[in-house]
Structures are given as structure tokens and as C-alpha cells.
Amino acid sequence: MNREQKIIQTSIIGIIGNVLLVAAKATIGLIAGSISIILDAVNNLTDTLSSIITIIGTKLSTKKPDKKHPYGHGRIEYITSLAVAVIILVAGGSAIYESILSLVRKTTATYSNISLIIISIAILVKVALGLYYRKVAKEVKSDALKGSGMDALFDAILSLTTLIGAIVAMFTGVAIEGYLGILIGLFIIKTGIDILRSAISSIIGERTSDDVAIAIKQTVNSFPEVIGSYDLILNNYGHNRAIGSIHIEVNDKLTAKEIHPLTRKISQEVFLKFGVILTVGIYASNTSNPEIVEIRKDLHELVKDYPSVKQVHGFYVDEQLKMISFDLLVSFDEKNVEGLKESIINKLKEKHPNYQYYIVIDNDYSN
Question: CB neighbours of 20 closer than 8 A, spacing ≥ 6?
Fold first, then answer.
């Protein structure tokens, strides 16, 4: 069973479970006149809608690339999560509104033993669904399923508060329905905000995970011709759909005839291991001239005085033009990048005044 089928199957199981819970809780809530149970049922209904949207989003995201969308439709999954978040937020706001109305109207609920039993069963079902969602989400790396799993486990906790409220009402006559409804609404809104924040972050574009970046660089560096790898940039277009680039440093003496098959082998290896389409750029090591080696060594020593400089690479000397260029990987915390560049150039000129210096500032896209 592939990823798409697994997500759809899991979502269908969730739909069936939630529909049954909606029917049971809505019936009990209407009979007992309990606003918290009715709102709990509404919350389960939003879970059902979320699962339906997840199925639609999964189907659309697997559409083949076309002329207008050459990178495929994988990012539809992020929009799916956004839609789920909006539904949850609306449900949470409605829950709080209805609960406040019940407090103003002083609505009193009446419960039976069968009501308590059904609510208890609903709690167990929600826990089982939540754990199942999380297990599958981890297997297929689905943010939508992960969010549904979190939501289901939250629902179990909220149903437990409903059960406690019912027991309190039965044995003490004290109605805490409205307050529990507000609490449920706040929890629903919190879940919606968390999913919304995650979806927006994915749409904007997140930093490549350190684990993935390190693993890709280790694979690239495993080729004996590669001295070092830098500037890894990955653009995500959905699950296992990434296009990126990387620079490798190689010996000056390698010819184009030797570099060409090397870059092909690297791209192929990375694609087979990580599903990433990688373009490979080249840096020459500049180790043939002793004077240049000395300048490079001085540069690496110099930048140790700048904590925001995370790496130096791409060092290149044009001996004819007396021009030295290199890349600096600078932390996002550095507030005065231009001042940092000027300071480093001035210190280099003090030791090696016969050269002009050109610095490229790299953003910290990955580890």
C-alpha cells in the first residue's frame, strides 16, 4: 500500500469512527439538554470534515506535473491543513458562543447512566483513533494526519471533562455545563491555531531539517573526489518532492571530463537515497599556489574572531586581476552584515594589500 492509499484508508477509518460518535453524542446531548455534549459532537463533526478534506487534498496533491505546475501539486497538502485549521477555529468560536448563551439562559441538563456509559466509550474510541492517526502519520510523514491525531487525543481529554461535568450534575445538582463548553471551545481554538501556524510555516517555506541536511552532505562527501560540500538549498514541493542545489569543492587539477561524471553520480545517489533532484556546482580548491594557500589560511584564522560567521567556502583567486572572492555563511542573528564584511576586508588588506576582495554573503539555509 502506497502513501496516498495509507492516508486515505486512515482518514476513512477516522470518518466512520467520528460519524458514529457524532450520532451518539448528539442524541445524548439533545435528550439530556447538555450543551457540552452537543458541542463535543460538533467537535467530532469537524474531525469528520477534516478527514474528508485530507482525502481530497491527498488525491489532488498526487496529480502529475503539468505545464503550469511543472513541480507537481504536492503543496496542496499544506493548503489542506490550512482549510482544516479554519474549520476547527470556526467550530471553537461557535462552541464558546453557544456556551455563553447557555450560561445566560441558565440551561439545566439531565443525565442517565446510559449517557455516562456512551460518553465513556466515546473517550476510549477517541484515544484509539488518536494513537492510530499518530502511528500512521509517523510512517507516511503526513502533517495533516499528525494534526488529526493531536486533535483526536485532545477530544478524548475534552470528552473526559464532559463526563466529569455530567457526574457532578447527577450527584450534586451543580450545573457546570456552560463553563465546560467554554473550556472545550478554547481547546478547539488552540488546536486550530497550532495547525494554522504549522500550515502557514510550510507554505512560506521552512528551513531544511538538520538531520536531512547532514545526511545529504555525508552522502556527497563520501565521494573521494569531493573535498567539501557547501550551500545546500532545498525547495520543498510536497512529501518527498524536493529540488535543490549544492556546491562541492574539488582539486584544481580535475578536468571537465572528470567533473561531469562526478556531478552526475552525486545527483543520482542523492536522488536514490532522498528523492531530491540536486544540481551540483563546483568550487576549485586553489591549492596550487603557496601564496594563495597562505591567504586562505589567514582568512580562516581571521574569521574565528567573528562568532556570527559560521563558515567560509568558495575561496577563489583571480591572479590576473588580483581579485579574491569567497562566501561567508553568516548567522541570521547578525544585525550588521555590511559592517562585518567591511571589517574582514580591511583586516585582509592589512596583511595582503596587493589584492581586491569580494565577499558573497550566504544565508543559513541548512546545517
Answer: 125
Q: With both helix axes pointing from N to C terminus, report the angle between 143-172 and 177-204 in degrees, rounded to the nearest 10.
A: 170
For the chain, give every residue range classified as CATH 1.20.1510.10. Answer: 3-204
Bridge partners, residue 277, by sequence: 243
Residues of the chain with CATH 3.30.70.1350: 210-362
Q: Are 95 and 42 in contact (CB under 8 A)?
A: yes
Domain spanning 3-204, CATH class:
mainly alpha
C-alpha cell recorded at residue 294: 597562505
Q: Quick check: 281 and 245 in contact, CB under 8 A?
A: yes
- Tens of pLDDT, residue by residue over 122-173, are 888 888 988 888 888 888 877 777 777 777 777 777 777 777 777 877 777 7
**pLDDT for the residue 183:** 80
For residue 214, the model assigns a pLDDT of 93
Instruction: Determine which helix (DSSP H) or strand (DSSP E) holds 203, and give its type and residue range.
Output: helix 177-204
pLDDT digits (tens, 9 = 90+) for 301-322: 999 999 999 999 999 888 888 8
- Judge contact between 137 and 152, C-beta under 8 A: no
**Contact, 332 vs 348, CB < 8 A?**
no
Grid cell for residue 311: 563558515
C-alpha cell at 51: 478527514
pLDDT of residue 206: 83
Closest CA to 35 of 175, 154, 173: 175
pLDDT over 80 (residue 334):
yes
Which position has the higher pLDDT, 68 or 84?
68
Q: Do residues 345 and 357 touch, judged by C-beta distance below 8 A? A: yes
210-362 folds as Alpha-Beta Plaits (3.30.70)
